[in-house]
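=== RUN LOG ===
request id: a7f3
mode: sequence -> structure
chains: 1
length: 555
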Amino acid sequence: MRGTQEAVARALDVLGAGACLVDEQGLIVAVNGRGERLLARPAAELVGRDAHELLHRTSCGEPTPRAECRIRDSVLGGETRQGEDEWLERGDGTLLPVRWLATPCDTGTLILFHSAGRQKRPGQRSSADGRLSELERLALLAETTTLLTSTLEIHEGLRHLIALVVPRIADWAVIDLIGERDEVWRFAVAQGEGGSVVFREDLQGPMPPVLQESQMPLSRALRGVASSFAGPETYQGPPDSGIAMEQRRLFEATGMHSAVVVPLRSLHGVMGALTLGRADQPERFTKRDTALLEDIARRAGMALENARLYQRQRKVAETMQRHLLPKLPNSPGRSMAVRYLPAPDASHVGGDWYDAFTLADGATALAVGDVVGHDLEAAAGMAQLRNILRAYAVSQQQPPSKIVEWLDQAMTQGIAEVSMATLVFARMTENAGRCELSWTNAGHPPPLLVTREGVASYLTDGHGVLLGLLPERARPDGTVELPPDATLVLYTDGLIESRARTLDDGLDRLCRHAAALAHRPLETFTDELLARARPPDNDDDVALLAVRYVPGLSG
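=== RESULT ===
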C-alpha cells in the first residue's frame, strides 16, 4: 500500500502545482512534493487524514463549515469545479490562500492547488495595507447579522460581537451600555491575545453620567450625536467630565494609539457605544473603517433592543406567574412541597401551574396543569383557569370529574380564554383514620404514588381527553386509599419529556428515582426528584407538587 502511495505521488510530481488525491470519503490517498512544500506538511502527516478537517479553514482560521466548503462539495459530488478565496492551514499554523481545481478520476478526486498570495496568521488581516477587502467586509456584515440574531440573551449577543471584531479589525473592543435610568455601565473591555479574547475586569463597571455639553468622543456617541476618532492625545488636556477621565485611564491601560467610537442605536434611541482600538496593529482607523463599524453597530443596536424587549416581556411573565402561584394551605395530616422551575430558554414561559387549597368540608383540593403555549398569553390563560377552577371547587361539593366538566364548558363558552390545556384535579379526604384520594385527569401525565416502602406506581384511572377538546363528554374519576407516609407526586411534562428518549423512558426514570427517595424528608425528596428526574435536554417549564399523608400531623 505504501509503495502504491509513493508511486502515485511521483506521478503527481510532474504537475506544476500542488496536488493531492482523495478517495470518495475525502481521505487523502497521496500528495506530491509541491503540495508538501506549500502545506509545510510531510506526506506522512497528510495521507489517511480527512482533507477537509485537516486543511480547510476560513480566512479567520476557523474550521470551514462542511455545508459551505466548495472543495468538499466537489469531492462528494464527483464534479469538476474550480475556485479561489479558499484557505488551507499549513503545518506551521499559518493560513495559505489558494486557487484550486478539483476533478474526478478513476481512483478518487484529484485536487490541484497553488498559492494565491502570502500566508497569514489566523485572525491577521489579509490585505497588504491592513484593510479588509470588500468581500471580507460583506462577509463580516453577514456574519454579524447571523450571530447577533441567533440569541435573545443580551450578554451572549454582545460577546458574539466582540469575537467578530477582535482581532479581525481591532486589538481592543469596549462596549458601554445605557441602562433604563440613563446610567452608563462599561460592560466589556476586551483584548485579542494569542487567538483568544481576554476581558479586563478592572476596567469594567459603572461609569460617570453623560454630560450634554461634553464634546469628547464617548460622550457624543452615548448621546447619539456622531461617530468620532480618538487617541491618547484626545485626553491630554483638562477633562470636561468624569467619562473623559475614565477614557484617559482606558487609553493608558490598553496602550491604544488609534480608536473609533460609534453609537449603538436602535429605533427608539441610543443603547450605548462601541469603541474599537488598535495598539499592536500599526494602521490608524480611517473613514472607510468608520462606515463599516457604523453598519456593524447599527445591527448590534437593533439586536440589543430586541433582546431587551424580549427579556422585559419574559420578566413580566415570570413575575406574573410567580405571584399567581399560590401559598400552600396548612392541612391536618398532609405535608406539602412545591417547586416551579422556569424554562432555561427565554422563549418558553407561562403555561405550567399548581394549586392547593382547603375546601368547605375539610378536604384538600390539589391541581397541576399546563396551558398550551409558552408566552405571556399562556400565563394569563393559566390564571383564568386556576381562578375558575377554584370558584367551582369551593362553591360546589362535587367529585373532581364534575368540577372539570364545568371547566370544560367554561373554556368552550369563552369564559376562559384558553384554547387547550391539560390538568389533574384531585381531592384528599381523611375520615375515620383513612385517607382517600379521588381525581380526574384531563390529558395530563398520570399522578405518581410512592409508599414509604419504596413502591412507586402511576395512578392511571380517571383519565380523559384534554381540556376544551370534547366539552360534552362526561369525565371519569379514579379513587385510591393512601397508606400512611405515602407521597403523591403531581407534575408537568417538563419533568419527563426528552428529545433523546421516549415518554415511557421519562416516566420510568421518574418512577425509579421517586422510589429511591421514598425515605427522604419531603422537602429533600422534592428537590432531589427535580434534580435527578428532569432530562438535561428539556427546555420546558416544570411545576411539581408533592403531598405526603402523615396521620396525626397537625395543620
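=== NOTES ===
The CA atoms of residues 52 and 72 lie 7 Å apart.
Residues 125-130 have pLDDT under 50 and may be disordered.
=== END ===
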